[in-house]
Amino acid sequence: MGELRAGIYTYAWDLAAEGYDTALGRIAGAGLTAVNLACAYHAGKFLLPHNPRHRVYFAEDGALYFRPDLARYGRLRPRVSRFVADEGDPLADLERACRGRGLEVVAWVVCLHNTWLGERYPDCALWNAFGDPYVHSLTPAHPAVREYLRALLTDVVTRADVAAVELESPGYMGFLHNFHHEIVGVPLDAAQRALLGLSFNPADLDWASKAGIDGKRLRLHVADALDAAWNGDPAPARRLLDAPELAAYLACQQEVVRSLLAELRDAIHLANAHTAVRLFAPPGPDAWESLRYNAVPELADGALAGYAVSDEDARNRARNLRAVMGAKPVYGMVRAIAPDTVDSAAQLGPRVAAWREGGVQGIDFYNYGLMTLPTLDAIGGALGARR
To answer: What pLDDT shows up at residue 85?
Structure first.
């Protein structure tokens, strides 16, 4: 299998606050080989146990953490983080700081989860069957959205020497996403959740029409089925979940995502042939996702197996993904923060061992600024760097 690569997800505000020498010294000392910087990220409220400037931090929504070339962008204009004005260019600064330390720079890019853009361009967001935009998620079917992502990723890999790009949320995100003060007072079964997550943006309907699918008719059926469920009759929604017309529409939306990712892969490779493209894979071969499990090898140079819920789950995820990826690398993932990792030393060792047993070529740990320093030490022990 060769040497295990080990990356750690990071935010610009933690690196800037601690100083790159301090933070990267800790990271390299734990046996990690890559720093995965959030280059495009969503809003959040974060407790930072070892940040010397902030212990609670509210992140800007939908912001870029590098200095972009704004001439690249079309109708959708990016939000540039205040760090670019106040702290310099975090991506360029990280690249310089990693030189000579044996650390690679990985660009971690959140693609379609962007409320800042969704609120400003609601015509580019997901639309449910009732015509309501879901501003937390852009639709991959819209030409302006695809243009924006091509520009963003080309920008990232030409502004710094990036070993890999990890693409998060490049597909249809669905209804539930823990949005700010999200309140759902109706008990939603699996059928209702699935139907609420479908997008009927005019751009989605256009793709369906070109595939010979009557998306407008399906939209009315979905709205009627949800109305019925919320008035005491869940049966129509459950029946619709198995309808051939819905299966065809889902297949069309999977093709939308596949074609977008093919465009992004080609744009990244054209801009920098040495930058690898990694995708977050669905949790398993039978997962009902907008990205088909078996499409990942075609679209990526490597795949992330996701956060396992147990050691056995880690082994299974790794083996399933390796079976479809062939010679392309598979990466395990570990949420090294509570509640996933409470007793860090006791839990991290077995989880890392399980990923290794499954045959992964690398493991990514989440997240440097959110974990405690004893947890970082435990990662080093699990990787063999600290005993």
So the answer is: 86
In angstroms, the first-to-last Cα distance of the chain is 23
The per-residue pLDDT for range 33-46, each reduced to its tens digit, is: 999 999 999 999 99
Confidence of residue 2 (pLDDT cuts 50, 70, 90): low
- Looking at the chain, the number of H-run helices and the number of E-run strands are 15, 14
40: nearest Cα among 143, 163, 170, 203: 170
* Tens-digit pLDDT profile for residues 260-292: 999 999 999 999 999 999 999 998 888 888 999
Cβ atoms of 90 and 15 within 8 Å: the answer is: yes
DSSP letter for 60, please: P
Stretch (H or E) spanning 302: strand 302-307
In this prediction, residue 1 has a pLDDT band, given cuts at 50, 70 and 90, of very low
- Please tell me what DSSP assigns to residue 101: T
Alpha-carbon gap, residue 148 to 177, rounded angstroms: 22
| DSSP 8-state class, residue 131 | S
Q: Is the peptide bond prior to 339 cis by the omega test (within 30 degrees of 0)?
A: yes
pLDDT for the residue numbered 294? 95
Give the separation between CA 45 and CA 102, rounded to whole angstroms: 32
Distance between CA 82 and CA 120 in Å, rounded?
19
Task: Tell me the average pLDDT across 243-264.
Answer: 97
Tell me the H-state helices in the chain.
12-18, 20-29, 82-86, 90-98, 115-120, 143-159, 190-196, 202-210, 215-229, 235-241, 244-271, 296-299, 311-325, 344-358, 373-383
Within 10 A of 310 (CB to CB), how many other CB atoms are there?
11
- Tell me which H or E stretch contains 126: strand 125-127
SS3 44: strand
Q: Is the peptide bond before 367 cis (omega within 30 degrees of 0)?
A: yes
